Amino acid sequence: MAQPLPQAEPLLKVEALVKHFPVRTGVLSRVSGAVRALDGVDFTLAAGETLGIVGESGCGKSTLGRVVLRLIEPTSGRVSFAGQDLGQLDAVALRAQRRAMQIIFQDPYSSLNPRMTVGQTLAEPLALHGLHRGRERARVAELLHTVGLAPQHALRFPHEFSGGQRQRIGIARALAVQPKLIVCDEAVSALDVSVQAQVVNLLQDLQQSLGLAYIFIAHDLAVVKHIATRIAVMYLGRIVEITDKRTLFAAPRHPYTQALLSAIPLPEPGLKRDRVLLPGDVPSPLSPPSGCHFHTRCPHARPLCSQQAPMLVADEAADSDHAVACHFWREISAPAVIGSARVDTPAGQRLARLQSAFRVQAEVA
Ligand SMILES: Nc1ncnc2c1ncn2[C@@H]1O[C@H](COP(=O)(O)OP(=O)(O)O)[C@@H](O)[C@H]1O
Ligand code: SF4
Ligand SMILES: [Mg+2]
């Protein structure tokens, strides 16, 4: 398994995390296989830090967020929060720890009760955890103010708000219990770009004033780049590369990261990156390829790649926290910058679809 990355006293430590969803078929609902949503994930997160998680749809991002928060049980592996192994806690202790870990979803409307006023929605977690007894209304007004809404909004129902305002309500609900960590699962993905920026700015302001740590999950690398301190790239249930965002954009080491980043336009007119072409589509997590999951599409694959899964390891010689899961990263150079774009081929068009999932603007580290 991957070695833990060097980090002083992490708030969150995830070790060898695996989540398989059984697949049942037939009238007897026999287990016929498993979706390997998480296939051995390791990372750490410091207090007040933001880790961005990027990867295509279905690569296991949401599952990771939910297993970390213990909303679903892992198949194996360990999640430690503030030094405590969550798997070892009894129900009471787990509930107390869960208070410190909250989640914000993509669609706040579906997670807000349409029949409850915003004030009732925000008062609910206070009552559940016995917080601010006797001054709940004042606390609700304070929470609304914190997320840029007005006290009178407490009397309104979710349908009376815009998408951006609803996401603010979702953030206020998460903040109600004074968490240390918030998982933002595609929290701004459904919002218009201008509203996205406002909510991202709000999250950053809250991080500064409250010392929050975020796991920021998104398929849009541009948004992640804006908010994250470090970025983890996932492919078929595994982290293939993790490092600080500047290093990731300037010197990606994993061939998959290189392919994703090769779609970024360069600021200089007339210059384009050598767009990396990957054959085929992402394989099914029901039967991921042996060894390195990426070997069926990797332009650098060799026989060892299908035989042995590469570990996510940092470059110890360089004393770096840039970890990559590739047997041959030292021999692979990042794609060159060239003077003209490559001619599109069917494979290139498939890749363009893949890369368009990472709608990255002309912003280069
Ligand atoms: N409750 C579930 N039961 C069965 N399969 C699931 C369940 N939740 C997620 N999956 C599968 O696990 C894989 C990872 O899903 P998910 O974590 O939602 O990916 P992402 O958030 O990156 O799009 C997908 O193949 C998905 O279909
Ligand atoms: S281990 Fe092999 S297949 Fe996997 S990314 Fe590296 S070179 Fe490609
Ligand atoms: Mg998801």
Q: Pairing-aware structural class of the strands and helices?
A: alpha/beta
Ions, cofactors and other ligands present here are: adenosine-5'-diphosphate, iron/sulfur cluster, magnesium ion
Q: Write down the overall geometry.
A: globular
Strand order of the largest sheet: 6-7-8-3-9-10-13-12
End-to-end C-alpha gap? 31 Å
SSE succession: EEEHEEHEHHHHEHEHEEHHEHEEEH
> What average pLDDT do the residues reach?
86
Largest pleated sheet: 8 strands, mixed
Beta content comes to 15-25%
Number of strands: 14
Low-confidence parts lasting 5 or more residues at pLDDT below 50? 1-7, 337-343, 357-365
Number of helices: 12
Radius of gyration: 22 Å
Helix content: 25-40%
Strand and helix layout:
Blueprint: E1 12-25, E2 30-45, E3 50-54, H1 61-68, E4 76-81, E5 84-85, H2 91-99, E6 101-104, H3 108-111, H4 118-128, H5 136-146, H6 163-175, E7 181-185, H7 193-210, E8 213-218, H8 221-227, E9 230-235, E10 238-244, H9 245-250, H10 255-261, E11 272-273, H11 303-307, E12 313-314, E13 323-324, E14 337-338, H12 346-356
Parallel strand pairs: 3-8, 3-9, 6-7, 7-8
Antiparallel strand pairs: 1-2, 1-4, 4-5, 9-10, 10-13, 11-14, 12-13
Bound molecules: adenosine-5'-diphosphate, iron/sulfur cluster (SF4) and magnesium ion (MG).
